[in-house]
Amino acid sequence: MMKQDWKKHDSEVRPGMFIEGKWHKKKYLIKKKLGAGAIGSVYLCDVNGRPAALKISDNSTSMTVEVNVLKSLEKVQGTRLGPYLLDVDDWASPLGAKYSFYVMEYLKGEPLGAFIQQQGKEWLGVFMLQLLEDLNKLHQSGWVFGDLKTENLMVIQTPPRLRWVDVGGTTQIGRAIKEYTEFYDRGYWGMGTRKAEPSYDLFAFVMVFLHVYYPKRFEKGANPEATLMRKINEVKALTPYRHVLKKALIGKYTSSADMKRELIQLLQRVQHHKQTQTRTQSRKKTKSTKPVAMEIGGLTFLAVGYYLLSLLL
Amino acid sequence: MKKGTIKQILLITDGCSNKGEDPAATAALANQQGITVNVIGIMEDTHTEETEGLQEVEEIAQSGGGVSQLVYKQSLSQTVQMVTKQAMTQTLQGFVNKELKQILGSEQSMEDLDPEKRGEIMEVVEDMGETCDLEVLVLVDTSASMHDKLETVKEALIDLSLSLNARIGRNRFSIFSFPGKRKDMEKVFDWSPRLDSISTIFPKLTSGGITPTGPAIREAMYQFGKKTLLRSFRDDEAGLEEA
User: Fold this and answer.
1) From the list B89, B93, B123, which residue is nearest A68 (CB)?
2) Which band of pLDDT confidence, cut at 50, 70 and 90, is reported for residue A73?
3) Short-list A112, A153, A116, A119, CA closest to A134
4) Closest CA to A113 of A203, A238, A231, A215
5) Does the domain at residues A4-104 carry the CATH identifier 3.40.190.290?
6) Which of A42, A136, A146, A242 can pair with A256 through a Cys bridge, CB separation 3.0 to 4.6 Å?
7) In the CATH scheme, what is the homologous superfamily, with its name and number, of domain A109-312?
8) Chain B residues near residue A182 by CB distance under 8 angstroms
9) Would you list the domain boundaries of chain A?
10) pLDDT score at A244
11) Which residue has the higher pLDDT, A186 or B226?
12) Which of residues 119-158 of A touch B (CB under 8 A)?
C-alpha cells in the first residue's frame, strides 16, 4: 500500500555492504533481505560475527514509534515478548539520503501454518496456551498486541515455542488500535470497536488459528458473524477448541487469563470424558467414539505437558 | 495545556477537475487557515498510473499540507484511515518541530536529534494524536465516473469513524458532495461525531457531469468557519452528547 516508502532504500541497501550508524558508530554487514513490510525492510546482517536482524526505512517517525514499543515490551516482566532490541541509529547513505534503522535479535523459525502442517494438529493446543500466556503478560502490563496475525508470529526451536517477531502494532490499553490487518480486525467483521482492550487481541487470536486452515483467507459474506462460526465448524482439527474459540470471537472473554483457564478446563474435561468413556466401554463393549476420544485425550496430555515444559524454560 | 482541534478536508476523487479555479491554489488557501487537505485518488483497475487527473491528487495534497494516496477501490477503507491518521501525526509533528526550532535554533528539526530524544518526543506526539479533537470534512466527488465507487466510499467512511472513535479525543465528521445540484458543493451529512447513520443517505447521491474541485475546496473551507461560530453557542450541549 505504501510502496514509495521502501522503494528508496531497496535500491541503496545491498548484500555485502556495510551500514554504519551515525550516532553509535556500529557497523553492520548486510547479508540478505528477510522481508518487507508497510514501513520498512528487514535484512539479515552480521555484527562481530553474530547474526542479527536490521530494519531500515526512510520513515523516521514510524520507526521511532516501533522502537518505543520494543523498549516498553522489554520492561514487561518475565518472558521476553518481542525480539530483543540491540541498537537504534541513523544512516546517511552514499547518495546523501537519511535513513533510520534498528537492530534486533534474529529469530529463526518457521511459520505457524507450515509447522502445524508438518508436525501435526496436536501442537495447536500447545501454541494456543503459549500465546494466551504471553498475551496475558502483555495485557497485565497495560498493552494490547493490536496487529496480531500469523505473519507476525513464528515457531522457533527447540523446544518449539511460538514467538512474536513483529510487535509494531502494540498499543496502550484504552487507546485506538495503532495498526491492524482487516482479516484479523474485529472492526472489519463488524464485531466490535477498534479500542485497544484484551478482547481485541482474543478475537485476532481466533483468526490466527483459523488462518492456519484457511491460508487464502475468506470473504465476509452477507452475515460476517455467521460466516466465522461456520468456518470454525468446518475445520475438524479445531473441534476440541470450538467452544472457546467461538466465545472469544463474540467478545465473551474480558481477559486472556479467563480464556486460558477455560481452555485448560476444556482440555481436561475432554480427557476425563475419555477416561470414563473407556471405562464404560470396557464394561458394555458398545461401539463408541473411542478412537476420537483417545486422540483428543492424548492431545490434551501433550498440550498440557508441553505447556508446563514451556513454563519451566 | 488546552488541547487543540485538528481540522482536515478529506477529498475523495477519481480524476481531474474541469471547472473553476485551480484546486491546488484553494488547497493552499485552506492550509493557510490551519486546515489540512488530504486527497485520495481512486484508480480504475485498468488505470496506468501516470494519468493526469491522478497527478493533480498529489499537487492538491502537497499545497494543502496533507497526505495523498492513490488506491484501488478494494483497499479504500484501510487507506482512508491511514491517510487521516498520518496527516494528524504530520500536523502535530509540525507543531512540535516549530517549538523545537524556537528552543534549539532554526536549523534543528526532529531528524537532527539522537534516536533516544526523538523517541521521547514521538511519545508526546502520539499522546497528542490520541487525545486531540479532530474535525474531518469529507468531500466526495460524485461526477459520473464515481458512480460505481460510491458504495465502497460509504463503507470506507463508516470504517473511518470506527477507527477514529476508538481514540480518546473527540471527533466530528461532515460529508459534502460535489458537484451539487445547483451549487458547486452540497451538504450530504451535517457535523456529527459518528458516521454509522450515513447508510441511508448515500444511495440517494446522484452523479453529475462536471468536477469543480477547486470551488468545492473553497466552499469546504468556509464550512469550518460557519461551524465554529455556531458551536460557540452550543458547546455545552455538544459536550453532553459526547459523554
Assistant:
1) B123
2) confident
3) A153
4) A215
5) no
6) A136
7) Transferase(Phosphotransferase) domain 1 (1.10.510.10)
8) 77-78
9) 4-104, 109-312
10) 97
11) A186
12) none
